Hints:
By secondary structure, the protein is α/β, with parallel strands linked by helices. It has 2 domains: 2-90, no CATH class; 95-280, 3-Layer(aba) Sandwich (Rossmann fold). Helices cover 52% and strands 15% of the residues. The protein is built from 11 helices and 7 strands. It has a 7-stranded mixed sheet with strand order 3-2-1-4-5-6-7, with helices on one face. Strand 2 (121-128), helix 6 (134-141) and strand 3 (145-148) form a beta-alpha-beta unit. The radius of gyration is 23 Å and the shape is elongated. The model has no long low-confidence stretch (mean pLDDT 92). The protein binds 5-O-phosphono-beta-D-ribofuranosylamine (GRF).
Amino acid sequence: MFEKLQSKWKVSGWNLFLVLVTFALGGSLCGYLGRKLLLLTGLEGGVVWFILYIILVTLLWPLCVLLVSVPLGQFRFFRNYISRIIGKMKGSKPAPIAIFASGTGSNADKIIQYFNGHKMGAISLVVSDKADAGVLEIARKNNINTLIINKKQLESGDELLSALSKQNIKWIVLAGFLQKIPPALVKAYPNRILNIHPALLPKYGGKGMYGMHVHRAVLANQEKESGISIHFVDDHYDHGETIFQASCPVAETDSPETLAKKVQSLEHAHFPRVIEEILQNPR
Ligand code: GRF
């Protein structure tokens, strides 16, 4: 049972313990306060008392667990937990996601398939800086809106921001987007822009480190392992907080192409799932 909860809530063993303690203490606090408040009404027992008690504890419960979660370091878990409950009650729709990509879009393709019919997120826009990028064809085949932007439009940020807000975009996923994200966009989407990099950052990141350049550099330095890094985007290339990394061995016989294949299979296996986890537990 505990293992099931751990995987459902995506928490480690110790955190699961703290989450359960928060549930218990928050629930008790809520029951206690509910009774104390009802004493003020002068009512004692009976159906009316019971109905009022149920209403009070339902209203107090989120406040109580949030309060208790702070000293136990579980505030983020409970904030997300409660907003998911509210979302379900409101029958909330999947969050619109935009994918930015400049290339063939194999990652975009995996993400689009993964989120097809998903409850939490929907890929509703594909943005590219290259009019002939393969990713645009993938988008069209999946009936997803596309937007082609040039460097100038990207740098100013305004036009792009208004296009994103028109489509109510809540998350941005960079899947092989070669341009720098303008500060205006980073500001408008704090911890809402994710990037994947084909190496173990902080090594082999930064300007000019993309595609085969990365794999060539890894091989030139005779690294024993490489891999992928999924991170939030900030104002610097390949620099924001790391969310997830996975590694693969680098063999002496590897060429940049064979290494690229190993890294790509890690990307396809993990990127959609990590995006889903972040949608469930935003920072
Ligand atoms: C991937 O290797 C990704 O890590 C990097 O750009 C590449 C995109 O590949 N940021 P694809 O177009 O998804 O095949």
